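Forwarding the complex inputs:
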Amino acid sequence: MIEFLNVTHTYMNNSELAHNAISDISFNVSEGEFFCIIGQTGSGKSTLIQHINGLIMPTCGKVLVDGFDMSQKKQLISGRRLVGMVFQYPEHQLFAETVYKDIEFGVANLGITGDEAHERITSAMEAVGLCVSEFSEKSPFDLSGGEKRRVALAGIIAMRPKYLVLDEPMAGLDPMGRQSILSLLQQLQSELGITIIMVSHSMDDIVHVATRIAILSRGKIAAIGTPGEVFKNCELNAMGLKLPQSIQLIRSLRERGIEIENDMLDEDAIADELLRRYLHA
Amino acid sequence: MLKDITLGQYYPAESCIHRLDPRIKLLAMTLYIVIVFLAQSLYMFIPLAAFVTAAILLSKVPISYMLKSLKPLKWILVFMFLLNLFLTKSGTEILSFWIIKLTTGGIYKAFFISIRLVFLVLGTSLLTLTTTPILLTDGIERIFSPLKVIKFPAHELAMIMTIALRFVPTLLEEADKIMKAQISRGAQIDTGSVFKRVKAMIPILIPLLVGSFRRADELAMAMESRCYHGGEGRTKMRVMKLTLGDGICTLIMISLLAIMIILPQIFPMLAIMP
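Prediction (whole assembly, two chains):
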């Protein structure tokens, strides 16, 4: 379990330019969840998730990963092994001569070599949909943007983290690319039981995959809960966020007198439901 | 991690020093450096100190901020002080121990050189503290533009400086991000032997290099698509105009120069080192 206990982070502490990126944040993420953090640019999302890997230390409060206090140096190392971190545009961090070697970097840093390393690397490549025989010996710099991102993701997945933290993993990809990354993450969560914590600023991407959503606004949690709860109770427009299109559709149908009980249907399911009613009428 | 590094240490404030024309400020600073070297004794630092104090007060830059600019210099200062203290052999001998000899001349010279260095740094950092880097490069371009006649690329030079300054924070941010990304992949940057640490820099330096080429490429493309073709025939958005303040500043600098030249002529004892 990942626990945030009253975490505050102040940038440029002790100077005139000091400002709180996040203030007094507390929440838990349980194992097996697909937890999404949503908020406008500048709401503190990236700052928040970097705490999970101890890359940023809280100014006040505590972050616990499976009970390891990430602000204690000794516990930090153990905690870090549990958390895989995928930054925005992770393809910018590729450096090795071949795709294989780049994915190997993280695995080798864990002290894993030989057959087990090879097994991890190839299975990570397969997981992200990169053909092992085709890509292993290619230079990562010769790949397309989407392929590079897959290599970067494989580099983290090969480390077999218990928690996978991603900062806008779909940014700058086309709709097909977005969908394939999203279904990959869902697969990791449901088949391998990896807990996923994902930052996004688009509701549409996450509404149908998230088990829980936290909405971040000006460094504070404005709402937290299942997607249904959050969309029912929270004024998203006031925070500069848009409702997912499927929910907008359901609401405007409702205004026109067509009642669809289940708020959480996706566009296809709404179309099926409408068609069913039309055929019955 | 790298966020705490401040470069291009501009201090935003509304003051008459901030408002001065960057060309005048640049020329005044050049003159100031000459003036500092004109001072040949500790006494001659008194008018200089009065001038610097007045300028700092007028600029509204906090004294603590000014003193911070001296911080990176502390080891050079200590080194210069000790070097002069023990290697100058003039005046009366105070202490003699093995090969080390302490003389009154040495003490005097050590203080003299250190104070001169402090004056140099204070004056020049006042320029960078009160002028934005963009204005500064603009000023440099204008000062050197008469040299265009002899094919001196004043505009291109200023543009290179502007771009370099512009990308310092961007590259720092990128380096920070890549460092964090590799740390979370288990890279150990700050432990191990020197050899190990150098090797650990590779996963950071290569993406940084690739990234800066990517940015350079993008920037060149963006500039070209806006029809950038160098300095020829290019007009300025900010036209620099000299104001009354610039005139006063010039007068003050010239009178300071005059004082520093004339004073030792009238009072010869001021110029002599004991």
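The domain at 2-235 of chain A is CATH 3.40.50.300 (Rossmann fold).
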